[in-house]
DNA sequence: TTGTAAGCGTTATCAT
DNA sequence: ATGATAACGCTTACAA
């Protein structure tokens, strides 16, 4: 900038003023402005963000802390966040919590290099991090997070989503509905609770063994499915806590020659992009991801503007999910109860189920 | 830091020295060091990165420019990158190119906020960006990128991968092999070229209509498959340019009641995590993503150390992919040629194929 | 071993 | 309308 000023024959402060299009009452000779701008272009001058930050200016960076980017859902969220942030002129610094969220914090926050932090998913397993964040001067917004913290929150009504999904299954005649969860994170816990609650309200007695928990991976699907099918009265439908879990179940069902949806209906949660492309495509509860993230960014940059937390309770915005019915759910036919794997019935029922699948019209 | 110095009763420079564990000959009284460190902890002091950057210190940030984070493959890459970078003490700033890569550049580089930039995937569609990057003082490393640029490169031997895949199909008896691509990006072009080359070397005459191109989406799978099956002599196997494309094909095959792999073998490329969880699981060419990214980070931070590009040609590292055989490929049975969809043969061949599937042992 | 002081690139305040 | 100058938080010679 010094060079620019020298080359253009003006003072540094003039250059600064021109570049910043100083707000309010400014008056700069058109001639000067043009000369300076030309020089800037010619010299390929770029402002130094460090120096700006030093002067208290914003870094135009949003920190994102996410537990596990491997999860396609989170990956999608990061993408959405990147886009939403860019629309507001912000970049995104990624702090993958991965093994230890504390480190992520160190990366993103400790270096208070960003104007605000967005917490993605349940990080309650990291109390130290939360404590750190509380006393940090950076505004924090939590998305898909529990409620036991002092940050503004954007979340989804898991209860309503589960209710919709189970109502759908119910209306298809399903009474034996299992739940396969992944991990013990906030949203999943809420979904499990809602599942139990719905069963109670629908006067369906809970069946022992119908709730399977495990890490959030695709791979667990196989084990969960085997366990469920080995039950004396196996379920005719499964509510998966997550689309990824549901995909694992579909894969496992294929491997075990259980026809979906003829023998077994499966419902997911999230509506990740791939959910429309599974075989069969997945009935799932759609998360209004884009809207949620847009709001989160709004809150974050809004908070980044005002130096300190406003008084009163932090805003807590709850979005409504929506059931998307695709091909992984169908009527519970009384004759197509899934059976524990034993050669004879498996072959018979499977081939029948498949014929049904073939009769189905094309998508 | 001033506060810390005051509270500890020492000079600012002393605090700085202690915090930076000054290299070379340092000598600081244990007593002083401990006092200062205690004060630092007590006051919860965090260094201001902006000020550091101002003094020419590194920002410990790696810029990542990616064309499309939606793609699960890229999402996985970002994750790997984040982890690899963290291991070297670096954070990752995400510059999703999205609509216009120029903007991404503006976000990430123009604000030369990071010590090095990693280009992920083919960004050759953005010549202006490349030009900008060339004259930028930030080191750039390109991964999965063509070769017409002056940056160090980490890439994969697409030719070898395609050869492996086609040899595999060949050995299963397939002669009618189609190629479904997505986009016209460097790697995909290379794969298509390798496909044609292999066909020529195997003395298989290319069949009109066997190469389908389209955007990289899952959705195109349906159209591509319909078009291929409508051919007078439809293929018995398809090489997909990408796992995502392959997943689209599997989905489409399911919808159109074409049994995979009995009637149609499908091979993907990339080995994204989900490839193991499709129904059926996907035979694919595995990308050594982790190694590639590790090397890219190595190159990037190495280059970040030395101020300017070393003389001579930039390093170009090429990795070898590896075929992973799963369940989406099988022998080309002479009687199971896929036919253009017409009720009678479809039902017959499908149910036979399915019986075969059921006989298969569990995974 | 520790303190003093200069300077990094900006912006904001004042003076002209 | 523009120029001079202080200050931001930190590193690093250099001085003590």
Overview of the structural elements:
The structure is a homodimer. With about 375 residues, chain A is an alpha/beta fold. The first copy, chain A, has 3 domains: about 1-35 and about 40-55, no CATH class; about 60-155 and about 290-320, Rossmann fold (3-Layer(aba) Sandwich); about 160-285 and about 325-355, Response regulator (Rossmann fold), CATH 3.40.50. Chain A contains 13 helices and 12 strands. In chain A, the strands form 2 sheets. The first copy, chain A, has a 6-stranded parallel beta sheet. In chain A, strands 7-6-8-9-10-12 form a 6-stranded mixed beta sheet, with helices on both faces. In chain A, strand 1 (about 60-65), helix 5 (about 70-85) and strand 2 (about 90-95) form a beta-alpha-beta unit. In chain A, helix 1 crosses helix 2 (about 10-20), helix 6 packs parallel to helix 7 (about 125-135) and helix 10 (about 220-230) packs across helix 11 (about 245-255). The longest helix of chain A is centred in the last third of the chain and has 17 residues, at about 290-305. The first copy, chain A, starts with a helix and ends with a helix. Mean pLDDT of chain A is about 80; it is low at about 335-363. Chains A and B meet through helix 4, helix 5, strand 2, helix 6 and helix 11 of A and helix 4, helix 5, strand 2, helix 6 and helix 11 of B. Strand 2 (about 90-95) of chain A pairs antiparallel with strand 2 (about 90-95) of chain B. Chain B binds a DNA duplex (16 and 16 nucleotides) through helix 2 and helix 4.
């Amino acid at each position: 900038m010094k060079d620019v000023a020298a080359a253009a024959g003006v003072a540094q402060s003039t250059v600064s003023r021109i570049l910043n299009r100083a707000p309010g009452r400014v008056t700069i000779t058109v001639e000067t402005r043009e000369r300076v701008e030309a020089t800037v272009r010619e010299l390929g001058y770029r402002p130094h963000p460090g120096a700006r930050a030093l002067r208290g200016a914003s870094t135009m960076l949003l920190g994102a802390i996410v537990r596990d980017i491997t999860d396609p859902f989170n990956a999608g969220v990061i993408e959405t966040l990147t886009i939403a942030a860019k629309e507001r002129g912000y970049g995104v610094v990624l702090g993958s919590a991965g093994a230890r969220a504390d480190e992520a914090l160190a990366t993103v926050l400790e270096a208070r290099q960003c104007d605000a932090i967005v917490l993605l998913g349940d990080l309650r397993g990291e109390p130290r991090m939360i404590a750190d964040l509380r006393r940090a001067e950076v505004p924090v917004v939590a998305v898909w997070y529990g409620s036991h913290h002092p940050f503004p929150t954007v979340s989804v009504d898991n209860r309503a989503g589960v209710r919709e999904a189970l109502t759908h299954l119910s209306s298809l005649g399903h009474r034996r509905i299992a739940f396969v969860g992944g991990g013990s994170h906030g949203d999943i816990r809420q979904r499990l609770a809602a599942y139990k609650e719905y069963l109670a309200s629908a006067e369906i007695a809970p069946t022992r063994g119908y709730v399977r928990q495990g890490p959030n991976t695709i791979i667990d699907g196989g084990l969960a499915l085997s366990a469920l099918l080995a039950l004396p009265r196996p379920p005719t439908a499964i509510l998966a806590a997550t689309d990824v879990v549901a995909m694992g179940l579909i894969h496992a069902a294929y491997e075990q020659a259980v026809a979906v949806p003829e023998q077994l209906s499966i419902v997911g949660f999230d509506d990740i992009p791939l959910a429309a492309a599974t075989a069969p495509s997945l009935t799932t509860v759609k998360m209004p991801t884009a809207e949620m993230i847009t709001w989160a960014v709004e809150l974050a940059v809004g908070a980044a503007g005002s130096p300190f937390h406003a008084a009163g309770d932090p805003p807590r915005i709850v979005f409504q999910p929506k059931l998307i019915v695709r091909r992984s759910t169908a009527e519970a036919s009384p004759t197509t109860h899934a059976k524990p794997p034993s050669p004879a019935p498996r072959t018979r029922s499977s081939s029948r189920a498949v014929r049904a699948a073939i009769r189905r019209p094309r998508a």
